[in-house]
Amino acid sequence: MGKALESIADLIKKVDVVIEVLDARLPSSSSNHQLQALRRTKPWVKVLNKPDLADPAVTAAWLKQFKSETGVSAVAISAKKQLEVKKLIKLCKELSPRNGRLGFPTRVMVVGIPNVGKSTLINTMAGRSLAKVGDKPAITTVNQRIELDGIVLSDTPGVLWPEMDDQEGAYRLAASGAIGANALDYHTVGLFAAEYLMRRYPELLKSRYKVAELSESPSALIEEIGRSLGCLIAGGEIDLNRASEAFLRELRAGKIGRISFEEPSLSQEVDS
């Protein structure tokens, strides 16, 4: 973490605009807040990636809050969609003090924790595969400079990890898939996600699993889901770990519905 932040602090002095890639389902938890201390007055664009998986009303609230912050712009786009990313490139040029100056391309840095879509965004902006994309974070050992039409794009070296001091935030990251399976066990994360969805998105659960009423507890819900998905072991018992893993897989793929794990007000979970 220290080396990554040092690299960012050094590079931020040499760029015109910074793009921070966030997960639209958990924009606060998927941000490393130490970045704000490095920002100073630099134009900052918060990209809420994967908006198709997030609750659109909550995403709109996040965009409104971010846009109210001095020097901050915010957009909700898919890092995979070329047309949407082209609008982001245009925005960066507009925000740059070099905008319109012939021979002075806009210098842009992209930052973000692993698994929020930073590499996907860089590849889409470049129009070709330059950064490794996958479930495991790729460690960039050198600063990559990519020259585009009117833009010089920089990918920072090292891995910028999320802050894990907040246990609730860590569970949100795990539920979304932003941190690896080895960090927290599936069943514990599954129970966390089940409790949250039962409270905030009960109708989506009922619709997905075709039940008139939900189970009384998160553990009972995981068992019911496990039974419906065939996660059984000898004797017809539910394999709770497999059931939790299957439930989280459906949640992350958007099969349950469009779900946000937190709202902007005090960066707390969405309340009814």
From TrEMBL:
Gene3D superfamilies assigned to the protein according to its UniProt record, in alphabetical order? 1.10.1580.10, P-loop containing nucleotide triphosphate hydrolases (3.40.50.300)
Q: Biological process GO terms, please?
A: translation
Domain CP-type G per the UniProt entry, residue ranges = 2-162
What GO MF annotations does this protein's record show? Answer: GTP binding; GTPase activity
Principal cellular location given in the protein's record: cytoplasm
| Residue positions binding GTP | 49-52, 115-120, 158
Q: Does the record bear Cytoplasm in its keywords?
A: yes
One Pfam entry for this protein is MMR_HSR1
Localization, UniProt: Cytoplasm
Q: Work out whether the entry's keyword set contains GTP-binding.
A: yes
What GO cellular component entries does it have? cytoplasm
UniProt KW keywords: Cytoplasm, GTP-binding, Nucleotide-binding
Q: What does this protein do?
A: Required for a late step of 50S ribosomal subunit assembly. Has GTPase activity.
Per the record, the similarity remark reads: Belongs to the TRAFAC class YlqF/YawG GTPase family. MTG1 subfamily.
Question: What is the designated name of this protein?
Answer: Ribosome biogenesis GTPase A
